[in-house]
């Protein structure tokens, strides 16, 4: 299903987070010597984008979705994922993730995003009126106004090389 314009700002940020996940998965197993720079990049990604993205979902998107009884359980699961992911982001900030944990984090973040896109967003577009979607989009635009427009780019140590 074509993404409604009200949800496109979230979907764009999802694409950038998925790109980070793919890079982590392709680089795995991450050498101990590179683990520090990978964790620094993950923490920076949270600081400049994902933390604000999570807050926008929790303050605007999830309350709108909870209005539909069939979405309540999904929203609760997605919200619980945010807690798990925040903890991993904090551990990355503290340089406290192993290479295996970093890979598990990337896999969980990727699965979380795909559930939002394929289940929550699709269902919201079916259940909400065009006016409700427009109102949702306005609320998301306001909540996301502080997200930096530039995406976090890989540094020289975390940039994948040809063939990876």
Instruction: Give helix and strand order, one letter per element, not per position.
Output: HHHHH
E-strand count: 0
Identify the quaternary structure here.
single chain
CATH class: Mainly Alpha
CATH superfamily: nmb1532 protein domain like
Examine the secondary-structure arrangement and name the CATH architecture. Answer: Up-down Bundle
Jot down its keywords.
164 residues, mainly alpha, Four Helix Bundle (Hemerythrin (Met), subunit A), 5 helices, 73% helix, elongated
Task: Describe the overall structure.
By secondary structure, the chain is an all-alpha fold. It has one domain: Four Helix Bundle (Hemerythrin (Met), subunit A) (Up-down Bundle), CATH 1.20.120. Helix content is 73%, strand content 0%. It is built from five helices and no strands. Helix 1 runs antiparallel to helix 2, helix 1 packs antiparallel against helix 4 and helix 3 packs antiparallel against helix 4. The longest helix is centred in the N-terminal third of the chain and has 34 residues. It is elongated, with a radius of gyration of 16 Å. The mean pLDDT is 93.
Q: What are the SSEs and their pairings?
A:
Layout: H1 8-27, H2 32-65, H3 72-93, H4 99-127, H5 130-143
Helix pairs in contact: 1-2, 1-4, 2-3, 2-4, 2-5, 3-4
Short summary:
The chain has 164 residues and is mostly helical. It has 5 helices and no strands.
